[in-house]
Amino acid sequence: MNASAISNDIALRIGLAVRELPDTNAARMLSVLDDAIGLPPTDKKLSGLTVKALKSARDGELADVDTTALKSALGYLKGETSLSAEPLPEVSAYSDGDMPGSIRVACASNKGEMLDGHFGSCKRFLIYQVSDKENRLIEIREIDDTQADGDKNGYRASLIADCQVLFVASIGGPAAAKMVRVGAHPIKKPQMGPAIDEITKLQAVIGSKAPPWLAKVMGQSPEERIRFEQEEATA
Questions:
Q1: Helices 67-77 and 51-60: crossing angle, nearest 10°?
Q2: Burial of 53 (0-12, 13-18, 19+ CB in 10 A)
Q3: Could you read off the pLDDT of 175-202 as tens digits, one per residue?
Q4: Mind listing the domains of the chain with CATH numbers?
């Protein structure tokens, strides 16, 4: 169809909706919308669209996409979610050595200081330095998939190769494998929410109370882990 038949407002809505869905582009979304409501998409047609219709359209093209992500995309498509950009959080100064015993954590994000991004489609990574005593948002890394050179997952993994943990709304198996190869432990948080909530929970278990996976991420040897547990038990 002629792209000029789509209004600028709805084209923007589609673009924002696409960013909420992993491995989805405008062409894929238009194909689904064509089957669900017919083209061109109009405000009236989009107002009646449902998550169920999105999942079933085009023989289930989006059936495997996380429902929470589809709800978020639907909010943009129907104009219910504000199109204005949320201000980004302030970044704190950090130099290597400032926070002994800390780890670096990435959060996949689309809006503000939210942990609401899917690995393959998030707009940015929020980078935190976290120890048992404090946490700092030290950097915001914007994502430009035009730099991916044919390997989007590899490109995105390279952006956070210095991190030990990745919090993400969802991530596919191949992408998770790439994260593990660069030394980051991916953790899915499909319920999404403020990034600081997950960072605070992580901060509470860093150190002697770290679970085995986190102790490994922090570089603690099995002997250190046993010692920490013995000290905790006799304290």
A1: 100
A2: middle
A3: 999 999 999 999 999 888 999 999 999 9
A4: 3-77 (1.10.150.590), 103-201 (3.30.420.130)
